[in-house]
Structure formats: C-alpha cells, structure tokens
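Lab notebook, bench 4. The sequencing result for the construct came back, and we need a structural model before the next group meeting so we can plan mutations. Quick request posted to the team channel:

Model the 3D structure of this chain.
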Amino acid sequence: KAHYVGYEPSIDALIMCDLGLDCVRAFRFNGEQYTLLWENNFPIGSGPRHCVKHPTKNIMYVLTELSGEVFVCELHEQALIIKNKASSYPPQFQKPWAAAIRITKDGRHLYASNRGHDSITHFIVDEVGNLHFESRSSTYGKQPRDFNLLQNDQYCCVLNHDDHRCVMYKVNDNGSLTYLTQETLLEGVCVCLTAT
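Done. Here's the predicted structure in token form:
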C-alpha cells in the first residue's frame, strides 16, 4: 500500500513510503524501467506515510501514520539508516493517526499533523539533524489531513478534513505558530495542499 512517492534529487531516485508493508523503498530509472536501490523496514504496524529531506543534510524524516512518530534517518544512495525517533503525539495519547510532515527551508523547524489529537507538532532541528519537541498547536478543526508552509515559511495553512476548515497561522521567528484566521471550504476539498 504505497501512500507516497516523490523524487529525491540528492540520490537521483524515487522514494516510496509503503504504509501497508511498513517499509520505505528507493527506485532509480535506468532509461527503460525503475530498479530497486534499497528497501528499509520500519517497525511492524508503524505505517510509514510521508517523508521530507533536510535541505542541507543527508537526513530523511519519515512520518509513521499508525505509531505517530517521526523517524530520523541517514539517507544514502545505498541505504536508509534509522538513527532515532520522536513522537508527534502526547505520551498518553492512545490512537495515533499522523498525516503530514513539513520542514522549513532553513532546516531549523519541522512540523507534523496529528489527526485525532487535532494538532500540529513543532520540533526544533538541532545541528546534527535530531529533533527536539517544542510545542503543539490546535488546528481548530477535525482531522488535519494536510498542511503546508507558504510564502518562504512565513505562514502555515492547515486543511482539516472532517469539518472542511482551512486554518491559517503566522510562523514566528522561533518557529511557533500564531493563529490568524479560518475559512470553511466545500466538502471534499480539504485533502491535499500544494505550495507553489
């Protein structure tokens, strides 16, 4: 059950998160077909859903839907190596259902959306790429399925799937989020948000 596929130029490969088989794979096109570069297994039942690469380091952050964690991994052409992880949910939360992950262009702040808890978690990224929990912000809606950073990371826009609310925040200099406004959109619209 491949949930996400995206091109990663640093290793000239497609990265695929397989939520159902608990693995992440890399494929390279040889001019005729895609061939497997590597496959990395994640804990059973964790459900890798999305990933983002650090803008300057060989670090890939993999968000697992079913365990609600962000895995910090070394990204190589030959392998993806899990180094450590951080939970996106509060310790007492029983049923994680993580959705989306983003990192700022300067690589200093990483965010993940938490369905069920209906929040955005903010992590500080340290000098070696490890994550440190900083805060959680309410999404003022139900099931934040996707979000994105806009206008050079000055704003964060969150799409709440179940009640169709689009919520806008100011991204402060320290990476924290300040609520600005919200709008109710048409049913079925709050699924995916692409920044251009």
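The chain has a mean pLDDT of 95.
Will bring this to the meeting.
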